[in-house]
Design brief:
Layout: H1 11-17, H2 19-27, E1 31-32, E2 35-36, H3 46-51, E3 54-59, H4 62-78, E4 82-86, H5 87-91, E5 101-107, H6 113-124, E6 128-133, H7 139-142, E7 146-149, H8 162-182, H9 187-207, H10 211-220, E8 226-231, H11 235-250, E9 253-258, E10 275-279, H12 287-302, E11 306-312, E12 324-328, H13 336-354
Parallel strand pairs: 3-4, 3-5, 5-6, 6-7, 8-9, 8-10, 10-11, 11-12
Antiparallel strand pairs: 1-2
This protein binds 6-O-phosphono-alpha-D-glucopyranose.
Domain SIS: 45-184, 217-362
Enzyme class: transferase
Subunit structure: Homodimer.
Length: 372
């Protein structure tokens, strides 16, 4: 039952393993006979959805990173410009909004005050509002024109895990629904992406198998003072999410960087022994991006970094330069984040445990921040 650890040492340990179901349950009822149809979106009408000129995604913390991942997918599929902004920054900068702007808010709890105030502000300015929320009847979905609920089930641990993968899933369904209504992709093209999405729960189950090797890694690293995360394209938000998890749970200074930005500053941080997680894009989809990230790995390795590569099965190009390789199953590029985040969640959880900290209730944090 909710509120019960069900034999797991922590709620987080339980919730991490519930991620395959979180995705499967969020898909259920929204793909019918191979066609994406998110019933909640009928509230807008197909005409209004076709007329949208701009999407602005808002959220805080992990929810904002789910939005950043989805930006790549929604722009690619629906051909609509997507911006992602932290709710508290959006609200206070006089954003340009009109009735062809769709505001998509993301909030697990549906009660985050910063996000609620941003949604209210956007509505008053004439935008249409869609809420992606995990909590039935929460304030943000009630204050929005429409809501797509993620069906991850109650999330108790302060650090968000299963809600994150469910948010990406809901946003992907939204993006593919939008692509269908707008005619930006053919039925076959949409079908291919839906098949990728439907294959994710089984791949998530398999990636959870890295738990044991992550535990060993975390034990070695329990006195680490700083960890960097590098990613490119959709791997970039994953890098930031991995860093956030480590700050939240293990109280370790951590930063996520876009791999291409390395040479513009962060490489100065690399000194012998510095641990760096690198999310390596698949070489099957973009040999160019893959080669660029492998060359980043060589650059930091040459300066003494300890490289932990998250790479797809069969990617041997990383082997000569990585101290550790953590494998994720093969997936289409836009779907890799849902898999690549899992080892990073587990790493933060195991490091927190290795340091004797409270995984579910990190200091100074609240599950839902209901003040501005
Ligand atoms: C708090 C939590 C984070 C969470 C953020 C957004 O800061 O500690 O884990 O990502 O709020 O919460 P929401 O409920 O709006 O998704």
């Amino acid at each position: 039952a909710a509120g019960d650890k069900g034999g797991w040492p922590s709620f987080m340990a339980k919730e991490v393993t519930e991620q395959p179901d979180a995705v499967a349950n969020t898909i259920r009822g929204r793909i019918v006979d191979g066609v994406v149809d998110v019933p909640e979106l009928t509230a807008f009408g197909d005409e209004a959805l076709s007329a949208i000129r701009r999407v602005i995604i808002i959220g805080c913390g992990t929810a904002a990173y789910a939005g950043l991942v989805a930006k790549y997918a929604i722009e690619n599929w629906a051909g609509v410009p997507v911006e992602v902004e932290l709710s508290h920054e959006f609200r206070y900068r006089d954003p340009v909004i009109s009735d062809d702007t769709l505001i998509v808010s993301i909030s697990q709890s549906g009660e985050t005050m910063d996000t609620l105030m941003a949604v209210k502000y956007a509505r008053e300015a004439g935008a249409r509002t869609l809420s992606i929320c995990n909590t039935q009847g929460a304030t943000i979905p009630r204050e929005s024109d429409a809501a797509i609920y993620t069906h991850a089930g109650p999330e108790v641990a302060v650090a968000s895990t299963k809600a994150f993968v469910a948010q990406i899933t809901a946003l992907y369904l939204f993006g593919l629904h939008l692509a269908r209504v707008r005619g930006s992709l053919s039925a076959d093209q949409i079908g291919e992406q839906l098949a990728e999405l439907e294959a994710i729960p089984a791949k998530l189950s398999s990636v959870l198998g890295v738990g044991e090797s992550i535990r060993t890694l975390a034990h070695w690293m329990s006195d680490t003072r700083s960890v960097l995360f590098l990613g490119r394209h959709v791997g970039y938000p994953v890098a930031m999410e991995g860093a956030l998890k480590l700050k939240e749970l293990a109280y370790i200074h951590a930063e996520g960087f876009a791999a291409g930005e390395l040479k513009h500053g962060p490489i100065a941080l690399i000194e012998p022994g510095q641990p760096v997680f690198v999310i390596v894009p698949s070489p099957r989809h973009s040999a160019l991006l893959h080669a660029k990230v492998v060359s980043n790995i060589q650059e930091i390795r040459a300066r003494g970094a300890r490289v932990i590569a998250i790479a797809e099965e069969g990617d041997v190009a990383v082997l000569p330069f990585a101290d550790e390789v953590i494998r994720i199953p093969l997936a289409a590029p836009l779907f890799e984040p849902i898999l690549a985040v899992v080892p990073l969640q587990l790493f933060a959880m195991e490091l927190s445990t290795a340091k004797g900290l409270d995984v579910d209730q990190p200091r100074n944090l609240a599950k839902s921040v209901t003040v501005e």
